[in-house]
Amino acid sequence: MSASQKPVSIVLVHGGFVDGSGWRGVHDILTKDGYEVIVVQNPTVSLADDVAVTRRAIASASHPVVLVGHSYGGVVITEAGNDRKVRSLVYIAAFAPDAGESVETLIANPAPGAPVPPILPPQDGYLKLDGARFADSFAADVDPDTARFMADSQVPWGVDALAGKVGVPAWKSKPSFYLVAADDRMIPPPAQRMMAERAGAQVSETPGSHSVYVSRPEQVARLVSLAAEQAIAVA
Q: Which parts of the sequence belong to the AB hydrolase-1 domain (predicted)?
C-alpha cells in the first residue's frame, strides 16, 4: 500500500433502472483521495443474485470495506453488509429495510400526496420507468442530456428483485450513514428519514433528486469519506 493509499476500500452498489456508470463522479473523487473503489454491476434480476455479485466485489477488495448503496442498492447492502469484511454501510437516498422487508413492502402504502413513480406495467417480469417522465421523477437536477441518456439506457428491473426480503439487516450490528435527498420524487424524503432513524444512522441531508449520486457527487463522496475515516479510526 502506497503512503497515499487509504487502508479502506469503497464498494459502490447501484439501484434499479440504472447501472454502475452513474457512480463515475463519486468514484473519481474517492480514487483521487486515495481510496480503492470498486463499482458493482448488479443484474437486478433478483435480490439473491445481486447480493452474491456484491459479495464477490467485497471479496475482491484489498482492504476492509465501506459498502455504499443507492436506492434499491440499499436493500442489497443491508443483506450483503453482514460480510465480516464490511465495516460500515452508507445509504444514498436508499431503501434501508428491516428483517422481512423488501422494496415491495416498503412502497406498498405510500403517504397521501406522495409522488407516484412512473413505473410502467411489468413486461416478462421486468419493470421500466416511463421514459418521458424519467427526468422529472428520477433525475430532475441532472443535466438534460445525461438525464435523457439515463432514461434511454434503462436497465429493466426484475419484479423478483423488488420482492426480495432481507434476512438479518447489517445495520443492526454495524455503523450506518444516510444521505437524504430532500427533493426525491422516487423515495419520499419522509420515508428516507424514517428508515435512517430506524437504522440509527448518522444522517446528512442535501437538496437533490433521486439521482443525487449523479448530480451532487461531492456531497455523496463527503459522507462516504466520513464513514471511511471513522472505520479507519476504529481499526
A: 10-222
Q: Are strands 157-158 and 202-206 parallel, antiparallel or unpaired?
A: unpaired
Number of domains in the chain: 1
Helix (H, G, I), strand (E, B) or coil at 97: coil
Closest CA to 226 of 4, 42, 33: 33
pLDDT digits (tens, 9 = 90+) for 96-106: 999 999 999 99
Task: Return the CATH number at 63.
Answer: 3.40.50.1820
| Residue that is written with C-alpha cell 465480516 in the block | 84
> Which residues are CB-contacts of 227 (< 8 A; sequence separation ≥ 6)?
66, 88, 89, 90, 175, 177
Residues 53-91: tens digit of each pLDDT: 999 999 999 999 999 999 999 999 999 999 999 999 999
Question: Do the domain assignments include residue 212?
Answer: yes
- Tell me what pLDDT residue 113 has: 85
In-domain check, residue 88: yes
- How far is residue 229's CA from residue 209's CA, in Å, rounded to a whole number? 27
